[in-house]
Amino acid sequence: MRFMRVGAKGSERPAVLDGAGIVRDLSGLDVEIAGGLPAPGSRGAIERAVADGSLPALGEWTGSGAFEMRDGRRVGAPLHKPEKIVCIGLNYKDHASETGSPIPTEPVVFMKAPNCLVGPYDEILVPRLSQKTDWEVELAVVIGARARYLGSPDDAPSVIAGYAISNDVSEREFQTERGGQWVKGKSCETFNPFGPWVATRDEIADPQSIGLELAVNGTTRQNGTTANMIFGVNHVVWYLSQFMVLEPGDIVNTGTPAGVSLGHPDVPFLTAGDVVELAADGLGRQRCRVGQA
Question: Least buried of 151, 166, 257, 260, by fewest C-beta within 10 Å?
Fold first, then answer.
């Protein structure tokens, strides 16, 4: 299933995108919705309500090649106020190489502030004083059950709720030239466009074979696949559980393939007026215009 949140910022309704492309309202259904995702025992009730047509329609999706709901409603981030956003850096060999970094022997872990999460068509704001605002298309993992000291990577699928597209927007000067604290260059407002939906785990046959693309002003900058991750999804979730407790609704950004502005002096960083478009197999598309804070 594909879960969304639709509506004006701050008042989004939880929704499900059905097989016919109709976005249906979940807010009136007698099931527990936490942060945009239904509780583990609620899926059967949702499936029955979708099948019998009892869920109100909020709009119609335009299709895989387009960007927004047909009736113009705003699509918000499919999760609401995650407890944490955990990120893996340098998780593709080609990306590590383009930034001049050694190949990691363990996952490189950093955090983003949860309140930088925005919708897949919301504006990205270049921070004040920024000269190096960059992009990173990523596969995001959404945690569905508490993960604490998992025994092995084979245990990871049992705690994964689903997957989504994430843009780990980054200010490279803040990240690497202002004291070495990555979180400063990763947590500026609007720095994590997310969605348009979370696809449940069963919707994605193999998270290690998802194509990822990103274009700026119509020019393709990233074109990769999760098959090239250094540390796969299951390894990453297992690894993180050894150092922190992952809770339902947490987001794990799993790294980006080559093609960011950093490491390519001929590729300009983002400025106001640019348009950033992302796509991932089975996970929809994003389109964000860039503004100035």
Answer: 151
Strand-pair category, 192-193 with 117-118 = parallel
Tens digits of per-residue pLDDT, 241-288?
Answer: 999 999 999 999 999 999 999 988 999 999 999 999 999 999 999 999
Same domain, 228 and 261: yes
Domain tally, the chain: 2
CATH number at residue 164: 3.90.850.10
Chain segment 79-101, per-residue pLDDT in tens: 988 999 999 999 998 888 888 88
